[in-house]
Structures are given as structure tokens and as C-alpha cells.
Amino acid sequence: MYQSIVTNEESISPEVYFQKSGSGPSEKDDKLELLEMFLQLMTLIPGTKPFLQIFESFMKTFSESIEKMVTADEIKVPSVSELRDIAGVKFHLSPTDGGIRNINFVGENERSCYLPLITLNIDSEVILRNLVAYEQLMAKKSFTTGYGLELTEYVDFMCGIIDNVKDVWLLREEKIIKGDLGDEDIVKLFNGIGRSHGKMNKVSDLRKTVYQLNKVYQSTPRVWVQKQLRASAKMITFLISISSTLILIREVYLKDYGLNPPNMNLDDIVRTTLSSFLH
What we know:
Layout: H1 2-6, E1 16-17, H2 30-42, H3 49-70, H4 80-85, E2 90-93, E3 104-106, E4 112-115, E5 118-119, H5 124-141, H6 150-161, H7 165-173, E6 177-178, H8 183-192, E7 199-200, H9 205-218, H10 221-256, H11 266-278
Parallel strand pairs: 2-4, 5-6
Antiparallel strand pairs: 1-7, 3-4
């Protein structure tokens, strides 16, 4: 069954490797926990709150960067409806029967993505989970038996392009999805299957297709403008945090020395001005 899904031909699959148990992105590092405990103790010391706010702002930015690096190996791709409505990508049933290896994207003027047929019934989730587990086990046992992570990558890809019922309906219209399983159940199926921590040692053909889809999607004016606005919003939020913290430090300093200048509420003025700019 596994070979009939992947391909009808025998070939040597790329070498794969796995992350060690407990090394996934959901696991919190012990050193990070100790640092958080230390920061909580520091809040008990008078006068340290403004400095801790600055440090926490930098830590938040650093943590977001680390999280992006950890999840970089997961297949990220827009949904079928997003690719069609925003980027003009059309999905079609592959004209040849070559298994899940026969996924390709034709760019430039055509912008068509060809996918193989998948039949989904009530027991499809159990079968897919078992086959993915079988593939990962065989790939982990030996690098020379011809088992890669092709099915796992295909399932990850389907999880990415199917977000809602509309995506399923569009694939049904093109005869890419068949079977008795309902549209909502198909959405739950692909949204409920977890991602694998294993990866190939080179870029597969499927990942090349994903790269082309993302490139076309990101190049559209609408997505480009949204991306620039999000980047600007993050920068402005960071500047607001730094400015507010510096103003707070100034006010604490002036209060300690018994000073009460007329611009003591400068913090509120800055917040109001920047908030009106953002809205």
C-alpha cells in the first residue's frame, strides 16, 4: 500500500535524520526557565522594574527569532483558496498516474499546480497515520533501504493547503479529492495530523514546488503590502516599548529627587500620539 501511494517504481530515497526526543519547539529549555525565575525575583527589588521591561522586550524579540529558526523545516504554504483568489493559482488533477511524486507547478502565465488523486473514506485518517509512522520508522532504522519521508512531506503539504471547507470543495471540483468522507471531516483530518520532526538531507521535488507557490504568492502586490505593514507595525511597537520605558525611568528618577516638572505626563502624550498614528 505504501509503495502504491508514493510511486510504482523502486528508487533510492534521500537520506533522512530525526531530532532527538524532547528537542522539539514545544519543549522549554531549562536555562530559560531559570532565567524567568531570576527575573521574577528581580521584580521584588525596588527600582528595577523599568530596566526589566527593557530586558523583556529584547528577550521577546530574540525568542520570536529562535522560534522562526526552529520551525523553518516545516512545510509552510498558503491554502488552496488563498492561492487561487490572491495569486491566481489553479489546481488540476495530474494527467499522469505517478503517485505523490507527481506533484508539480507550472508558473509564469499559466500558474497551475498539478496534484494526484486522493480518495478519502472513514478509515483514511487511521491509514494515513499508520503509513506515516511506518515510513518514519523505516527511515529511522536504515538509510539504505529506500525509505525517505515522501509520504510525510505530502501529508504536511496537504495540511498546509487545506484550511477550511472551501479548500476541500475546490479540490473536489477538480477531481483531486474523492471518496465518502465529508468536507468538514477532511478539514479536521488534515488539521489534526501532527507535523514530523524528520527531514531530508536535500531539497525534495515537493519542497521545490512549495517554494515556487510561495514565491508566486508573496510576489502579489496585496501580500507584499501586508508584509511591509506588519514589519512596520512590529518596529513601531518596539519603539513604543523602548520610549515608554525610558520615559518611565526618567519619571522615577525625578520623583526620587523630589522634582515635579510640568511635563511629568509626557509618557501619556507619547502613547496617545503614537496610538493615533497606528490607527
